[in-house]
Amino acid sequence: MKQLMLVFLGGGFGSVLRFIIGKYLNITPSGIPYGTFAANILGSLFIGIILGLAAKNNTLSQNQTLLLATGFCGGFTTFSTFAYENHVFLKSGDFSSFAFYTIASFVIGFLAVFFGMFLVK
């Protein structure tokens, strides 16, 4: 039960922060959802740092990892919104935004995880 509460609390904080970032950054005239992009990239960096710390000499406990990685990062990042935003790009025929957003999200997201893990080594 304690583990469920940790994931619940972390997810709530992550979701609220993602909402705030999206509210201020997803209003650009270009149509690129910079708020979702920022949340996903920052979340990738955070999870790299968190899991890197967890793996490094057990710096984080299992409960801390659940709170931060599973809860906070799980609530903060959003694949479903990313998928929906790409659906909108495709439906409107904006293939260049679709390609840029998708490729940049995957490439920079992976690099952010690796960079986060590198930072804690």
Low-confidence stretches: none
Helicity level: over 70%
- Largest sheet, described in full? none
Query: What number of domains?
Result: 1
Percent strand equals under 5%
Q: Count of helical segments?
A: 5
Order of helices and strands: HHHHH
Calculate the terminal CA-CA distance, rounded to whole Å.
33 Å
Overall form: globular
Pairing-aware structural class of the strands and helices? mainly alpha
Task: Calculate the mean pLDDT score and round it.
Answer: 95
Global Rg: 16 Å
Q: In total, how many beta strands?
A: 0
Give the helices and strands, then pairings:
Elements (H helix, E strand, L loop, with lengths): L1 H24 L8 H22 L6 H15 L2 H14 L2 H26 L1
In words, what does this structure look like?
- α1 packs antiparallel against α2, α2 packs antiparallel against α3 and α4 runs antiparallel to α5.
- It contains five helices and no strands.
- By secondary structure, it is mainly α.
- The mean pLDDT is about 95.
- The protein starts with a helix and ends with a helix.
- Helices cover about 85% and strands about 0% of the residues.
- The radius of gyration is 16 Å and the shape is globular.
- The protein has one domain.
Could you write a compact summary of the structure shown?
The protein has helices at 2-25, 34-55, 62-76, 79-92, 95-120.
Label this structure with key terms.
mainly alpha, 121 residues, single chain, globular
